[in-house]
Fe2OG dioxygenase domain-containing protein
Amino acid sequence: MEAQRSPQLQLRHATTAANQQRFRSGSAAAQRSAMSGSVDLPVVDLASSDLRAAAASVRQACVEHGFFYVTNHGVDRALVEAVLAESKGFFDLPMEEKLKLHRTNHRGYTPPYAEKLDAASEFVGDLKESFYIGPIGDSDLQNDLNQWPSEERFPSWKETMKLYIATALDTGERILSLIALGLDLDAEFFHKIGALDCPSTFLRLLHYPGEVNESDSGNYGASAHSDYGAITLLVTDGTPGLQICREKDRDPQLWEDVHHIDGALIVNIGDLLERWTNCVFRSTLHRVVAVGKERYSVAFFLDPNSDTVVECLESCCSEADPPRFPPIKSGDYITGRINSTYK
Ligand SMILES: O=C(O)CCC(=O)C(=O)O
Protein backbone atom coordinates (compact mmCIF):
# COMPACT_ATOMS: atom_id res chain seq x y z
CA MET A 1 0.00 0.00 0.00
CA GLU A 2 1.29 3.42 -0.94
CA ALA A 3 1.85 5.39 2.25
CA GLN A 4 0.30 8.80 1.59
CA ARG A 5 2.25 11.12 3.77
CA SER A 6 0.33 13.88 5.40
CA PRO A 7 0.65 16.88 3.11
CA GLN A 8 1.45 19.34 5.89
CA LEU A 9 5.22 18.98 5.81
CA GLN A 10 5.47 22.64 6.62
CA LEU A 11 3.45 22.07 9.75
CA ARG A 12 5.82 19.30 10.77
CA HIS A 13 8.68 21.69 10.33
CA ALA A 14 6.78 24.20 12.42
CA THR A 15 6.46 21.50 15.06
CA THR A 16 10.19 20.92 15.01
CA ALA A 17 10.78 24.67 15.18
CA ALA A 18 8.42 24.86 18.16
CA ASN A 19 10.41 22.09 19.85
CA GLN A 20 13.63 23.95 19.19
CA GLN A 21 12.08 27.12 20.59
CA ARG A 22 11.12 25.21 23.72
CA PHE A 23 14.66 23.87 23.92
CA ARG A 24 16.04 27.39 23.72
CA SER A 25 13.53 28.60 26.28
CA GLY A 26 15.22 26.22 28.62
CA SER A 27 12.95 24.30 31.08
CA ALA A 28 14.38 20.92 32.08
CA ALA A 29 11.30 19.12 30.75
CA ALA A 30 11.56 20.98 27.43
CA GLN A 31 15.23 20.12 27.11
CA ARG A 32 14.55 16.45 27.77
CA SER A 33 12.03 16.39 24.93
CA ALA A 34 13.83 18.64 22.50
CA MET A 35 14.89 16.14 19.86
CA SER A 36 12.44 15.09 17.20
CA GLY A 37 12.33 13.08 14.00
CA SER A 38 9.79 10.86 12.29
CA VAL A 39 9.02 7.18 12.36
CA ASP A 40 7.85 4.63 9.79
CA LEU A 41 5.55 2.34 11.72
CA PRO A 42 4.75 -1.18 10.53
CA VAL A 43 1.54 -1.65 8.52
CA VAL A 44 -0.52 -4.81 9.18
CA ASP A 45 -3.10 -5.98 6.66
CA LEU A 46 -6.04 -7.33 8.66
CA ALA A 47 -7.42 -9.08 5.58
CA SER A 48 -4.29 -11.20 5.17
CA SER A 49 -5.12 -14.88 4.70
CA ASP A 50 -1.87 -15.78 6.45
CA LEU A 51 -2.94 -15.31 10.07
CA ARG A 52 0.35 -16.58 11.47
CA ALA A 53 2.36 -14.08 9.43
CA ALA A 54 -0.02 -11.25 10.41
CA ALA A 55 0.30 -12.26 14.08
CA ALA A 56 4.11 -12.29 13.78
CA SER A 57 4.02 -8.75 12.29
CA VAL A 58 1.75 -7.55 15.08
CA ARG A 59 4.07 -9.07 17.68
CA GLN A 60 7.12 -7.41 16.17
CA ALA A 61 5.30 -4.06 16.01
CA CYS A 62 4.23 -4.36 19.66
CA VAL A 63 7.76 -5.27 20.77
CA GLU A 64 9.56 -2.60 18.74
CA HIS A 65 7.14 0.33 18.64
CA GLY A 66 3.98 -0.32 20.63
CA PHE A 67 2.31 1.42 17.67
CA PHE A 68 1.34 0.21 14.19
CA TYR A 69 -1.13 0.86 11.39
CA VAL A 70 -3.83 -1.54 10.27
CA THR A 71 -5.36 -1.59 6.80
CA ASN A 72 -8.38 -3.52 5.49
CA HIS A 73 -9.74 -3.19 9.00
CA GLY A 74 -13.45 -3.12 8.21
CA VAL A 75 -14.19 0.41 9.44
CA ASP A 76 -15.73 2.22 6.46
CA ARG A 77 -14.21 5.52 5.46
CA ALA A 78 -17.75 6.99 5.21
CA LEU A 79 -18.38 6.00 8.83
CA VAL A 80 -15.12 7.61 9.98
CA GLU A 81 -16.04 10.77 8.10
CA ALA A 82 -19.52 10.78 9.62
CA VAL A 83 -18.05 10.45 13.14
CA LEU A 84 -15.59 13.29 12.51
CA ALA A 85 -18.39 15.48 11.10
CA GLU A 86 -20.74 14.79 14.06
CA SER A 87 -17.88 15.42 16.44
CA LYS A 88 -17.09 18.77 14.80
CA GLY A 89 -20.80 19.68 14.99
CA PHE A 90 -20.74 19.17 18.74
CA PHE A 91 -17.45 20.97 19.38
CA ASP A 92 -18.71 23.93 17.29
CA LEU A 93 -21.46 24.56 19.88
CA PRO A 94 -21.04 27.53 22.25
CA MET A 95 -19.17 26.56 25.44
CA GLU A 96 -22.30 26.99 27.62
CA GLU A 97 -24.13 24.41 25.50
CA LYS A 98 -21.25 21.94 25.66
CA LEU A 99 -20.96 22.36 29.42
CA LYS A 100 -24.56 21.17 29.81
CA LEU A 101 -23.10 17.71 29.08
CA HIS A 102 -20.13 18.16 31.41
CA ARG A 103 -18.33 14.89 32.14
CA THR A 104 -19.88 12.72 34.87
CA ASN A 105 -19.07 9.01 35.39
CA HIS A 106 -16.26 9.63 32.90
CA ARG A 107 -18.81 10.27 30.17
CA GLY A 108 -19.60 13.53 28.41
CA TYR A 109 -17.77 16.77 27.69
CA THR A 110 -14.35 17.78 29.03
CA PRO A 111 -13.32 21.39 28.30
CA PRO A 112 -9.80 22.58 27.45
CA TYR A 113 -7.35 22.48 30.40
CA ALA A 114 -9.50 20.08 32.46
CA GLU A 115 -7.29 17.12 31.72
CA LYS A 116 -3.53 16.97 32.18
CA LEU A 117 -2.19 13.72 30.80
CA ASP A 118 1.38 14.44 31.88
CA ALA A 119 1.41 15.22 35.59
CA ALA A 120 4.83 16.86 35.12
CA SER A 121 3.51 19.39 32.57
CA GLU A 122 4.16 22.95 33.73
CA PHE A 123 0.81 24.04 32.25
CA VAL A 124 -2.52 23.98 34.06
CA GLY A 125 -3.89 21.41 31.61
CA ASP A 126 -3.85 20.18 28.00
CA LEU A 127 -5.24 22.31 25.15
CA LYS A 128 -7.68 19.74 23.80
CA GLU A 129 -11.39 19.44 24.50
CA SER A 130 -12.97 16.01 24.37
CA PHE A 131 -16.16 14.01 24.66
CA TYR A 132 -16.31 10.52 26.17
CA ILE A 133 -18.78 7.79 25.38
CA GLY A 134 -18.58 4.72 27.62
CA PRO A 135 -19.98 1.22 27.13
CA ILE A 136 -23.44 1.54 25.62
CA GLY A 137 -26.11 0.65 28.12
CA ASP A 138 -29.79 0.26 27.44
CA SER A 139 -31.63 3.58 27.76
CA ASP A 140 -34.95 1.76 28.33
CA LEU A 141 -33.44 -0.05 31.31
CA GLN A 142 -31.91 3.24 32.39
CA ASN A 143 -28.48 1.68 32.68
CA ASP A 144 -26.91 3.84 30.00
CA LEU A 145 -24.65 6.24 31.89
CA ASN A 146 -23.75 8.07 28.71
CA GLN A 147 -24.72 11.63 27.97
CA TRP A 148 -25.97 12.36 24.47
CA PRO A 149 -26.45 15.68 22.65
CA SER A 150 -30.10 16.50 21.95
CA GLU A 151 -31.61 14.39 19.17
CA GLU A 152 -33.45 17.43 17.90
CA ARG A 153 -30.22 19.22 17.18
CA PHE A 154 -28.14 16.15 16.26
CA PRO A 155 -30.58 13.56 14.88
CA SER A 156 -27.96 11.02 13.78
CA TRP A 157 -25.25 11.66 16.41
CA LYS A 158 -26.04 8.79 18.77
CA GLU A 159 -26.63 6.19 16.05
CA THR A 160 -23.42 7.20 14.26
CA MET A 161 -21.39 6.85 17.47
CA LYS A 162 -23.03 3.54 18.38
CA LEU A 163 -22.30 2.13 14.93
CA TYR A 164 -18.70 3.31 15.11
CA ILE A 165 -18.24 1.77 18.56
CA ALA A 166 -19.69 -1.59 17.43
CA THR A 167 -17.49 -1.60 14.31
CA ALA A 168 -14.34 -0.54 16.15
CA LEU A 169 -15.01 -3.21 18.80
CA ASP A 170 -15.21 -5.87 16.11
CA THR A 171 -11.92 -4.67 14.59
CA GLY A 172 -10.31 -4.42 18.01
CA GLU A 173 -11.29 -7.99 18.85
CA ARG A 174 -9.66 -9.19 15.62
CA ILE A 175 -6.48 -7.33 16.54
CA LEU A 176 -6.54 -8.86 20.03
CA SER A 177 -6.80 -12.33 18.42
CA LEU A 178 -3.66 -11.58 16.41
CA ILE A 179 -1.97 -10.30 19.55
CA ALA A 180 -2.89 -13.54 21.35
CA LEU A 181 -1.54 -15.63 18.47
CA GLY A 182 1.63 -13.52 18.48
CA LEU A 183 2.07 -14.45 22.15
CA ASP A 184 1.66 -18.16 21.35
CA LEU A 185 -1.75 -18.17 23.00
CA ASP A 186 -5.08 -19.42 21.70
CA ALA A 187 -6.56 -16.83 19.30
CA GLU A 188 -9.60 -16.72 21.63
CA PHE A 189 -7.48 -16.20 24.76
CA PHE A 190 -8.91 -12.78 25.67
CA HIS A 191 -12.46 -14.05 25.13
CA LYS A 192 -11.80 -17.18 27.17
CA ILE A 193 -10.54 -15.31 30.22
CA GLY A 194 -13.65 -13.08 30.12
CA ALA A 195 -11.76 -9.89 29.24
CA LEU A 196 -14.08 -9.28 26.27
CA ASP A 197 -17.25 -10.14 28.15
CA CYS A 198 -18.72 -6.60 28.45
CA PRO A 199 -15.34 -4.99 27.81
CA SER A 200 -14.70 -1.51 29.07
CA THR A 201 -14.87 0.42 25.80
CA PHE A 202 -14.51 4.18 25.71
CA LEU A 203 -14.75 6.37 22.66
CA ARG A 204 -13.01 9.72 23.02
CA LEU A 205 -13.79 12.43 20.48
CA LEU A 206 -11.03 15.01 20.47
CA HIS A 207 -10.71 18.56 19.19
CA TYR A 208 -7.41 20.44 19.28
CA PRO A 209 -7.40 24.22 18.81
CA GLY A 210 -5.58 25.96 15.94
CA GLU A 211 -4.23 29.25 17.21
CA VAL A 212 -3.19 29.32 20.86
CA ASN A 213 -2.55 32.24 23.22
CA GLU A 214 0.97 33.41 23.99
CA SER A 215 0.55 32.02 27.52
CA ASP A 216 0.09 28.55 25.99
CA SER A 217 3.26 28.71 23.93
CA GLY A 218 4.91 25.33 24.46
CA ASN A 219 1.75 23.69 25.82
CA TYR A 220 0.56 20.43 24.26
CA GLY A 221 -2.68 19.46 22.61
CA ALA A 222 -2.34 16.27 24.65
CA SER A 223 0.70 16.05 26.90
CA ALA A 224 2.90 12.95 27.12
CA HIS A 225 1.14 9.82 28.35
CA SER A 226 0.70 6.13 27.77
CA ASP A 227 -2.77 4.64 27.36
CA TYR A 228 -4.13 2.72 30.30
CA GLY A 229 -5.78 -0.42 28.99
CA ALA A 230 -5.30 -3.07 26.30
CA ILE A 231 -5.35 -1.42 22.86
CA THR A 232 -6.38 1.91 21.34
CA LEU A 233 -7.64 2.41 17.79
CA LEU A 234 -7.10 5.95 16.54
CA VAL A 235 -8.33 7.87 13.52
CA THR A 236 -7.47 11.48 12.77
CA ASP A 237 -8.52 14.06 10.21
CA GLY A 238 -5.01 13.88 8.72
CA THR A 239 -3.65 16.93 10.55
CA PRO A 240 -0.21 16.12 12.00
CA GLY A 241 0.71 16.50 15.66
CA LEU A 242 0.88 12.94 17.04
CA GLN A 243 4.35 11.97 18.23
CA ILE A 244 5.72 8.90 19.99
CA CYS A 245 8.72 8.42 22.27
CA ARG A 246 9.93 4.84 22.16
CA GLU A 247 12.47 5.15 24.97
CA LYS A 248 10.98 7.17 27.78
CA ASP A 249 14.13 6.99 29.91
CA ARG A 250 16.47 8.27 27.23
CA ASP A 251 17.82 11.76 27.90
CA PRO A 252 17.09 13.78 25.87
CA GLN A 253 13.97 11.99 24.75
CA LEU A 254 13.54 11.39 21.02
CA TRP A 255 10.03 12.28 19.84
CA GLU A 256 9.04 11.01 16.41
CA ASP A 257 6.14 12.21 14.24
CA VAL A 258 3.56 9.60 13.32
CA HIS A 259 2.47 10.16 9.70
CA HIS A 260 -1.09 9.97 8.57
CA ILE A 261 -1.79 7.10 6.19
CA ASP A 262 -5.02 7.63 4.35
CA GLY A 263 -7.56 4.95 5.24
CA ALA A 264 -5.41 3.22 7.89
CA LEU A 265 -6.17 3.06 11.60
CA ILE A 266 -3.39 3.67 14.10
CA VAL A 267 -3.25 1.04 16.85
CA ASN A 268 -1.30 1.29 20.07
CA ILE A 269 -0.70 -0.89 23.08
CA GLY A 270 -1.78 0.25 26.55
CA ASP A 271 -0.34 -0.32 30.02
CA LEU A 272 -2.39 -3.43 30.80
CA LEU A 273 -0.97 -5.28 27.81
CA GLU A 274 2.48 -4.13 28.87
CA ARG A 275 1.80 -5.63 32.32
CA TRP A 276 0.34 -8.85 30.88
CA THR A 277 3.48 -9.27 28.75
CA ASN A 278 5.97 -8.22 31.45
CA CYS A 279 7.10 -5.31 29.24
CA VAL A 280 7.71 -7.53 26.20
CA PHE A 281 5.13 -5.29 24.51
CA ARG A 282 5.52 -1.55 24.87
CA SER A 283 2.93 0.86 26.11
CA THR A 284 4.60 3.72 24.29
CA LEU A 285 4.60 7.30 25.50
CA HIS A 286 2.84 9.62 23.04
CA ARG A 287 1.60 13.19 22.83
CA VAL A 288 0.00 15.66 20.45
CA VAL A 289 1.91 18.86 19.74
CA ALA A 290 0.20 22.09 18.71
CA VAL A 291 0.73 22.65 14.98
CA GLY A 292 -1.15 25.92 14.52
CA LYS A 293 -4.07 24.18 12.82
CA GLU A 294 -7.28 22.76 14.22
CA ARG A 295 -7.24 18.99 14.54
CA TYR A 296 -9.93 16.35 15.15
CA SER A 297 -9.30 12.77 16.14
CA VAL A 298 -11.21 9.82 17.56
CA ALA A 299 -9.65 7.35 20.00
CA PHE A 300 -11.37 4.05 20.76
CA PHE A 301 -10.04 2.44 23.93
CA LEU A 302 -10.67 -1.30 24.08
CA ASP A 303 -9.99 -2.30 27.65
CA PRO A 304 -10.76 -5.56 29.47
CA ASN A 305 -13.88 -6.12 31.52
CA SER A 306 -13.10 -4.28 34.76
CA ASP A 307 -13.05 -7.52 36.83
CA THR A 308 -10.34 -9.09 34.66
CA VAL A 309 -7.24 -9.84 36.69
CA VAL A 310 -4.22 -8.81 34.68
CA GLU A 311 -1.18 -10.85 35.63
CA CYS A 312 2.02 -11.76 33.86
CA LEU A 313 1.51 -14.36 31.12
CA GLU A 314 3.51 -17.52 31.64
CA SER A 315 5.17 -17.16 28.26
CA CYS A 316 6.48 -13.73 29.25
CA CYS A 317 8.39 -14.54 32.43
CA SER A 318 11.04 -16.93 33.63
CA GLU A 319 13.27 -17.40 36.64
CA ALA A 320 15.71 -14.94 35.10
CA ASP A 321 12.92 -12.51 34.21
CA PRO A 322 10.30 -12.72 36.97
CA PRO A 323 7.00 -10.79 36.81
CA ARG A 324 7.63 -7.05 37.19
CA PHE A 325 4.10 -6.16 38.31
CA PRO A 326 1.74 -7.73 40.84
CA PRO A 327 -1.63 -8.94 39.53
CA ILE A 328 -4.22 -6.15 39.38
CA LYS A 329 -7.88 -5.88 38.46
CA SER A 330 -8.24 -4.01 35.19
CA GLY A 331 -10.89 -1.67 36.63
CA ASP A 332 -8.72 -0.75 39.62
CA TYR A 333 -5.73 0.09 37.45
CA ILE A 334 -7.71 2.17 34.96
CA THR A 335 -9.69 4.04 37.64
CA GLY A 336 -6.44 4.92 39.41
CA ARG A 337 -4.95 6.32 36.21
CA ILE A 338 -8.08 8.28 35.32
CA ASN A 339 -8.31 9.80 38.79
CA SER A 340 -4.75 11.08 38.60
CA THR A 341 -5.40 12.77 35.24
CA TYR A 342 -8.26 15.11 36.16
CA LYS A 343 -8.37 18.13 38.37
O1 LIG B 1 -5.38 12.69 19.07
C1 LIG B 1 -4.47 11.89 18.97
O2 LIG B 1 -3.84 11.74 17.91
C2 LIG B 1 -4.02 11.07 20.15
C3 LIG B 1 -5.04 11.00 21.24
C4 LIG B 1 -4.52 10.34 22.47
O3 LIG B 1 -3.35 10.11 22.63
C5 LIG B 1 -5.47 9.92 23.51
O4 LIG B 1 -6.64 10.27 23.42
O5 LIG B 1 -5.04 9.20 24.44
Remarks:
- The chain has one domain: 2-303.
- Confidence is low (pLDDT under 50) at residues 1-29.
- Residues 204, 206, 222, 227, 234, 236, 242, 286, 288, 297, 299 surround 2-oxoglutaric acid (CB under 6 Å).
- The longest strand covers residues 200-208.
